[in-house]
């Protein structure tokens, strides 16, 4: 393992805003903060927003700056990526940001029923040929439905036509409400939304920047789970 990675892992363990629960802790008891994120971690009542598969947490940190009235948690399995977001949040003095290093599969062990207001899925792996593993598969949508409040929202931003179309199919099958949709964010969506929403859509993640440099088109859908 590279020296950089090791020092990032070491620094993660010093951050109060990074949780790295063990498998046993999660599976046997669930996170101690489950159902109590606002009261015990953020120490304020505010809408709770997750970014799943957050990588370097560009949306977590970017949204926390744009909409400081909400609380944000980035979730990813890769410690070195989470470190990037955690370090930036610390440098910016953001008190409304946390990170959990874990598999999204454990999401029900991390958050209580109806604890969450919004979920962002940013450039999630399209899992070609492995539909069950996609973060918008029926299995995951069922989990999100449990932790989201009534009226809660899911945002999917992706370069993958496969994941975008697949998600639209899941939405149609379940007859879920679509609040916003665009097959081409920068040639369509940002030209017709408010300045505030433009700023949100203009947050560019690490992967998004790579895909834009390759000339890929970015897709977005925002929908409810009931
Ligand atoms: C393609 S990257 C996108 C990262 C970031 N959202 C971005 O746009 O730059 C996908 C990320 O999802 C994470 N990931 C994939 N499956 C996951 C899972 N089941 N649980 C937690 N993280 C996962 C990977 O570690 C990786 O950081």
What does this structure look like?
This protein has one domain (3-224): 3-Layer(aba) Sandwich (Rossmann fold). Helix 7 (138-147) links the parallel strand 5 (116-122) and strand 6 (148-158). The longest helix has 14 residues, at 161-174. It has helices spanning 3-12, 23-29, 37-42, 58-66, 79-91, 107-110, 138-147, 161-174, 185-192, 195-201, 206-213; strands at 18-19, 48-52, 71-76, 97-101, 116-122, 148-158, 178-182, 219-224. It has 226 residues and is of the alpha/beta class. S-adenosylmethionine binds at residues 53-56, 76-78, 81, 103-105, 122-125, 205-208.
Summarize this entry quickly.
This protein has 226 residues and is an alpha/beta fold.
* CATH H-level superfamily title: Vaccinia Virus protein VP39
Based on CA inertia axes, which overall geometry fits?
globular
Specify the biggest β-sheet: 8 strands, mixed
Strand elements, count: 8
Helix amount: 40-55%
Please tell me how large the radius of gyration is.
17 Å
What is the CATH top level name?
Alpha Beta
Shape-level CATH architecture: 3-Layer(aba) Sandwich
Strand content: 15-25%
Low-confidence stretches: none
Helix-strand makeup class: alpha/beta
Mean pLDDT: 96
State the end-to-end CA separation. 44 Å
Q: Provide the list of bound ligands, each named once.
A: S-adenosylmethionine
SSE pattern: HEHHEHEHEHEHEHEHHHE
């Amino acid at each position: 393992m590279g020296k950089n990675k090791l020092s990032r892992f070491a620094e993660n363990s010093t951050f109060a805003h990074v949780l790295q629960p063990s498998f046993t802790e999660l599976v046997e008891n669930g996170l101690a903060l489950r159902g109590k994120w606002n009261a015990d971690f953020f120490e304020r009542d505010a809408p709770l927003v997750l970014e799943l598969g957050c990588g370097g947490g560009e949306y977590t940190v970017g949204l926390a700056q744009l909409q400081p009235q909400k609380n944000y948690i980035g979730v990813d399995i890769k410690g070195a990526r989470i470190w990037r977001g955690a370090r930036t949040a610390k440098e910016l003095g953001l008190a409304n940001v946390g990170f959990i290093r874990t598999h999204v599969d454990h999401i029900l062990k991390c958050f209580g029923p109806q604890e969450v207001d919004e979920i962002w899925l940013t450039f999630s792996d399209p899992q070609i040929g492995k539909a069950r593993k996609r973060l918008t598969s029926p299995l995951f949508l069922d989990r999100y439905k449990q932790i989201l409040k009534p009226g809660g929202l899911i945002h999917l931003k992706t370069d993958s036509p496969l994941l975008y179309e697949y998600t639209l199919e899941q939405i149609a099958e379940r007859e879920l409400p679509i609040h916003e949709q665009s097959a081409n964010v920068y040639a369509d969506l940002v030209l017709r939304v408010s300045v505030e929403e433009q700023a949100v859509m203009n947050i560019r993640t690490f992967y998004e920047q790579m895909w834009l440099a390759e000339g890929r088109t970015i897709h977005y859908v925002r929908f409810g789970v009931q």
